[in-house]
């Protein structure tokens, strides 16, 4: 985003009651890319810090838009630099174990030739896998979220979900 974008918003708001903002809840925000091959297999990453496959993507940094985080994380994780496509799903998931509750954005990562050389980040991934959705070892909520993302690809309409369930 450009400086003029932020300038157009005007100066930051003053805090009427000092300390109140620090006491408010803070959620983790994550962004991932649904990247497919011509056979409709999905690109999954194999994290070294959790037992399930995941989409390429990661945590949005403070002050960073989710779409920019998605592009940055895909580049960092698999060495692929490409524009982030349209929004497919926004999904809320509750905290689990050490992870806080999250708002997760899934963007269209487009179709990629599976022969494209990808470089999994050795510090956080043990590899990548191209799999059909139903063959992937993933959490049930991620399976539901990705099913919704595939629906959004077809309909052209982003979907709001909670724990992978469509929210009306």
UniProtKB/TrEMBL annotation:
Keywords: Hydrolase, Magnesium
SUPFAM superfamilies reported in the protein's UniProt record: Nudix (SSF55811)
This protein's record includes keyword Hydrolase: yes
Gene3D superfamilies the record matches: Nucleoside Triphosphate Pyrophosphohydrolase (3.90.79.10)
Keyword Signal tagged: no
Domain Nudix hydrolase: 26-153
Xref: InterPro entries: NUDIX_hydrolase-like_dom_sf (IPR015797), NUDIX_hydrolase_CS (IPR020084), NUDIX_hydrolase_dom (IPR000086)
Swiss-Prot/TrEMBL cofactor(s): Mg(2+)
MF terms in GO: hydrolase activity
Protein name per Swiss-Prot or TrEMBL: NUDIX hydrolase
Organism: Dactylosporangium siamense
């Amino acid at each position: 985003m450009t400086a003029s974008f932020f300038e157009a918003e005007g100066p930051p708001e003053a805090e009427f009651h000092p300390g109140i903002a620090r006491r408010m809840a803070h959620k983790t925000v994550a962004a991932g890319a649904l990247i497919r091959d011509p056979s409709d297999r999905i690109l999954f990453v194999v994290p070294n810090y959790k037992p399930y496959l995941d989409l390429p993507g990661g945590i949005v940094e403070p002050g960073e838009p989710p779409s920019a985080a998605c592009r940055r994380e895909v580049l960092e994780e698999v060495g692929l630099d490409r524009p982030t496509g349209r929004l497919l799903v926004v999904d809320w998931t509750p905290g689990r174990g050490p992870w806080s509750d999250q708002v997760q954005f899934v963007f269209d990562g487009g179709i990629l030739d599976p022969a494209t050389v990808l470089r999994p980040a050795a510090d956080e991934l043990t590899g990548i896998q191209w799999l059909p959705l139903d063959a992937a070892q993933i959490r049930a909520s991620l399976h539901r979220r990705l099913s919704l993302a595939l629906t959004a690809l077809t309909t052209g309409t982003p979907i709001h979900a909670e724990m992978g369930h469509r929210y009306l």
